[in-house]
Design brief:
3-stranded parallel β-sheet; about 50% helix; Metal_Hydrolase; metallodipeptidase activity; globular; 6-stranded parallel β-sheet; about 425 residues; alpha/beta; Membrane dipeptidase; TIM Barrel; 2 domains
Length: about 425
């Protein structure tokens, strides 16, 4: 789910203030025409159709809640739904074998004390989807489930909690989310918690508080993947210091390619390799296109200033005008492939996956407009010289390895606890 970027005090954006003035209406470095003409080779089709394709983050549930009053009768995804990124026909076209459905709720609900209950409502919506479309989806909670379900032609449907605000500082709530089927939790979303820092908020904890350490340790015990998308670099390092199991980034890209605080710095990528973790690349234009990442920061700073000066309503009006005058460069599929290349270079191909953020973002690169477009990732990787083994790993097998290791660590902790 998108969230506006970091504060204007951040030195890394000092040179971006004027960048948007001349870049925004320029043709992307990899032309849209080229990507529109990308065709699937027989080899790409063969690999993709026989591969297990897993995506780490899709926000369809929030779209159904907001646009369809949480009703699959109002938004019947068995039918084409061109106003959103996800429906059953396009999932089939993309050969999606497993999907982590984000049960996102706004970080502000943590302050209101309703985040946990609203998250349970979102989990119930995932289960409702599985119930309404039993020939298309089946709930999965283990690696074995994914393998079994995907072989039937159904989408193995997993649950990912987006933000530790959802547990409302309660390990009992964390346990309950696991019992309800959640198999990863992003430690923060857009705002700091008392126990962990967000990448898009001012530093507060400087890593993890003692309770934050307990959260990670309990996730290890449960067999729930620790997701450190959205968290600050210091919290990334702290989580890797504490976790006995590999960590994941469910929907983040490479910071050296596009300087967004939502992306992963190289020093962290090196530790992802060393700790056998996984970065699932995000497709959002504002995170993957370098110029668009700079615009994202400029826009955030401008909006915050306007809110202070003229109030929220007038700020929204002025920002709408600014957006029309300064449209985002969407980029192309090649921008995402550039991030994959960098992640592979620094962390290794065994530590890269896909976490597109479909239905959680408002701008996507040309060539990656919806869930039908995953085969073009396969085509692009072939064209860049990746082997079939590497492509299969990136498409889904790397996630399976990490998740299985998380399950094994949980079993080891349980076994150790039963022996004096």
């Amino acid at each position: 789910m998108i969230v506006l970027g970091s504060s204007g005090t951040d030195a890394r954006y000092a040179d971006s203030r004027n960048l948007w003035r001349w870049t925004w209406n320029q043709t992307p470095p990899n032309s849209a025409k080229t990507d529109k003409q990308m065709t699937l080779s027989p080899e790409a089709k063969r690999i993709h159709e026989s591969a297990l394709v897993i995506d780490g983050h899709n926000d369809l549930m929030w779209e159904i809640r907001e646009k369809g009053s949480s009703s699959f009768e109002k938004i019947d995804i068995r039918q084409p739904q061109p106003k959103i990124h996800t429906d059953i026909p396009r999932l089939k076209e993309g050969n999606v074998g497993a999907q982590f459905w984000s049960v996102y709720v706004p970080a502000t609900l943590g302050d209101k004390g309703t985040a946990f209950l609203t998250t349970l409502e979102q989990i119930a919506l995932v289960k409702k989807m599985v119930e309404i479309y039993p020939d298309q989806f089946e709930l999965a909670t283990t690696v074995d489930d994914i393998e079994r379900i995907s072989k039937t032609g159904k989408v193995a449907s997993l649950i990912g909690v987006e933000g530790g605000h959802c547990i409302q500082e309660s390990l009992a709530n964390l346990n309950h989310l696991y019992d309800q089927g959640a198999r990863y939790m992003t430690l923060t979303h857009s705002k700091n918690l008392s126990w962990a820092d967000s990448s898009t908020d001012d530093e507060q904890t400087g890593g993890l508080s003692p309770f934050g350490v307990e959260v990670v340790q309990q996730m290890n015990r449960l067999g729930m993947m620790v997701d450190i998308s959205h968290v600050s670099p210091k919290t990334m390092h702290a989580a890797m210091d504490v976790s006995k199991a590999p960590i994941i980034f469910s929907h983040s890209s490479a910071r050296s390619v596009a300087d967004s605080p939502r992306n992963v710095p190289d020093d962290v990528l090196k530790r992802v390799h060393d700790t056998e973790g996984l970065v699932m690349v995000n497709f959002y234009s504002a995170f993957v296109v370098p110029e668009s990442a700079a615009r994202y920061s400029v826009r955030f700073d401008l909006k915050q200033k306007l809110i202070e000066e003229v109030g929220q309503a007038e700020a929204d009006v002025r920002m709408a005008k600014w957006d029309r005058e300064n449209p985002m460069d969407l980029g192309t599929i090649n921008d995402v492939l550039d991030h994959i290349d960098h992640l592979v270079k620094v962390a290794g191909w065994e530590h890269v996956g896909l976490g597109a953020d479909f239905d959680g973002v408002d701008a996507l690169p040309v060539g990656l407009e919806d869930v039908s477009r995953y085969p073009y990732i396969t085509q692009g990787l072939l064209e860049r010289g990746y082997t079939e083994e590497q492509i299969r790993g990136i498409l889904g097998e790397n996630l399976m390895r990490v998740m299985r290791k998380v399950e094994e660590v949980a079993a080891e902790i349980k076994q150790a606890g039963t022996n004096p």
